[in-house]
Amino acid sequence: MNLPIMKTLKDAVAFAEKEHDQFYVTAFHLQSWLSSVLVRTIAEYAEKKNPRGRTLQNGESWTAFLQAFDSPPSDRFRSLLGCLFRFCKSSVSPANSLLHALTPLVHEHNLSHDYFGPETTASATQGREGNELARRTIVRWCDWLDAAIHLRVHRYWHRAPSAFDPDPETRKLAMLGDTQYYVGKLDERAKACWLHDFTDAADQFKDSPKRAAFARALAAASAVNGNGSNKSPARPWLYPGVDTLVIALWPLLKKHNWTYRDLLNTIRPALKRPKAYPSDREQDFATYCTNVLGLRKTGKGVSAKNGRPPGHEIAERLCPALAKKAFTPPKP
After folding, report:
1. Does residue 72 sit within a domain?
2. Cα 183 to Cα 308: distance, rounded to the nearest angstrom
């Protein structure tokens, strides 16, 4: 069952009392947490035009998670992990970044058993060991969530430039205008959420000149999706394959201290032009990651001599779907 629409904490409490299930209160905090990470990442793109100045995939989701749940005690992580799994099952929207981030986490569990999953022994889920396993699993899930949201925003940045105004209020209106063009393709819950946000914005900005941003974004979305000579291009996306693979696999680089060469060797087999810029030379590739994608490696590593660094098995399982996604037009 999809989650109900919970606009406020009061709504969540009322629904929890009706269903005799406190999960809905936790779910409200989870959706607020996910929204805060998405909004923050969009702001990094909108307010920092130079990618070198952006802070991306540096533990933002985990930090926000601790804030959302007021630095929970160690014995609460097991119940929160259960709620995270249930939230994924209850929210089947294609925009559920938490669900997208679960896929690589499952692969890591299946190959290494480092994180909670079906192969976890019963004894490992109990007591302090179980608490620590749950906490460690959530931390790692947050790493993959950082990557999933980063990729989502990066694709959106190319598709809808008008939605990245430096002013937060103008940006909000532009995002609503862009989404209106696609609202007919959204599921019923997403439509209802959009209508709620639209109604609030209409009241908030009814006398503001910023309202023009809504119409401009709607017109821009129409132009991007027009036909023939009427079609207007979005922001050019020169290297979608490289961008998608680098952003999505960055958690592996961080965990295993890969070098840029390790990452390059890992993604090349999935690229259509593996020896073309920016994947032609390690130095060019490293510069591209920093100057275009806003991703900087910290610390020095040692490149795998056989081109198969630790964790490469995870990347091999993820790359086919990622490569396919790279050349699929971004959706709202």
Report:
1. yes
2. 44
Domain span at residue 69? 9-160
Rounded Cα distance, 127 and 136, in Å: 14
Pick from 74, 181, 231: which is nearest to 138 by CA?
Answer: 74
DSSP string for residues in 116-128: SSTT--GGGGSHH
Dihedral angle at the C-alpha atoms of 54, 59, 63, 65, nearest 10 degrees? 110
155 and 167 in a single domain? The answer is: no
Q: Does residue 235 fall inside a structural domain? A: no
Divide the 332 residues of the chain into consecutive groups of 10 and give the mean pLDDT of each group.
Answer: 84 94 94 95 97 96 96 92 92 82 92 80 77 94 98 94 93 92 83 87 90 90 65 77 97 96 95 94 97 94 91 93 75 50
Rounded to 5°, angle at Cα 138 from 132 and 143: 125
Considering the domain architecture, whether residues 150 and 250 belong to the same structural domain is answered as no
Question: Which of 92, 290, 255 is CA-nearest to residue 186?
Answer: 92
Burial of 173 (0-12, 13-18, 19+ CB in 10 A): buried
